[in-house]
Specification:
The protein contains 6 helices and 7 strands, in the order E-H-H-H-E-E-E-H-E-H-E-E-H. The protein has about 210 residues and is α+β, with helices and mostly antiparallel strands. Strands 1-2-3-4-5-7-6 form a 7-stranded mixed sheet, sandwiched between helices. A hairpin with a 2-residue loop joins strand 6 and strand 7. Helix 1 runs antiparallel to helix 3 and helix 4 packs across helix 6. The model has no long low-confidence stretch (mean pLDDT about 80).
Length: about 210
């Protein structure tokens, strides 16, 4: 089992543009598998605008350029009769595939869901989305196939001290990693600006010497 920690950061309303950019960068087939249909840019943007960050949990993984390369959405039921249920959705950029990000995001989703009192996690996926269904099965989920679509559900044990501590530690790790990447990016921008100024000075000296 891969024990390497992956920095996962919670996302909020301020990340809507980055979420939209990530989803619209997905290859057509990946976008189709994520939404279950060939979603247009307009439909993707509508989905992003309707994200309820106060009710649901949205989180993702950033690269060093602070581009969102993988994200997950845990949608909690608004029906009183289904308060203990939540649905999981995930997307991973093509360039970031094969690193286990989908599984890491699912693990984080399970911890968050348990801490919110969820006892049943659902995954609705196309039957051809073998990667997502494999993640569900590996976690012990029951998968039911109905033609082109599949439903997976995972029964979750009640939250304990371990799950609460795991969420706190994961949140801290993700935030620290993001801030370090942000600082590094800002510094590289600063260096680039300094280099442009120096180049301008050198060019000016050369012209003056001519």
């Amino acid at each position: 089992m891969n024990t390497v920690m992956v920095p996962i950061r919670s996302l909020g309303p301020q990340h809507r543009e980055r979420i939209a950019a990530h989803l619209m960068r997905l290859e057509p087939r990946d976008r189709y598998l994520r939404f279950g249909y060939a979603a247009t840019d307009e439909q993707v943007r509508r989905y992003v605008q309707l994200l309820d960050f106060g009710r649901d949990e949205v989180f993702g993984i950033f690269n060093r350029r602070l581009e969102l390369i993988a994200m997950a959405h845990v949608a909690f039921s608004t029906e009183e009769a289904h308060r203990g249920c939540a649905e999981f959705g995930v997307s991973v950029s093509g360039s970031a595939r094969g690193r286990g990000y989908g599984a890491r995001l699912f693990e984080r989703a399970v911890v968050l869901a348990r801490n919110r009192g969820v006892s049943m996690m659902f995954i609705h996926a196309l039957s051809e989305n073998t990667a997502m269904l494999k993640i569900a099965r590996n976690a012990g989920a029951t998968v039911r196939q109905d033609g082109s679509e599949s439903e997976a559900y995972l029964q979750l044990p009640p939250a304990g001290l371990d799950t609460r501590m795991s969420e706190i530690m994961a949140e801290h790790f993700g935030e620290v990693d993001y801030q370090l990447k942000k600082q590094a990016r800002q510094f590289w921008h600063f260096l680039s600006h300094v280099q442009e100024i120096r180049q301008g000075v050198r060019d000016g000296r050369h012209q003056a010497a001519e």
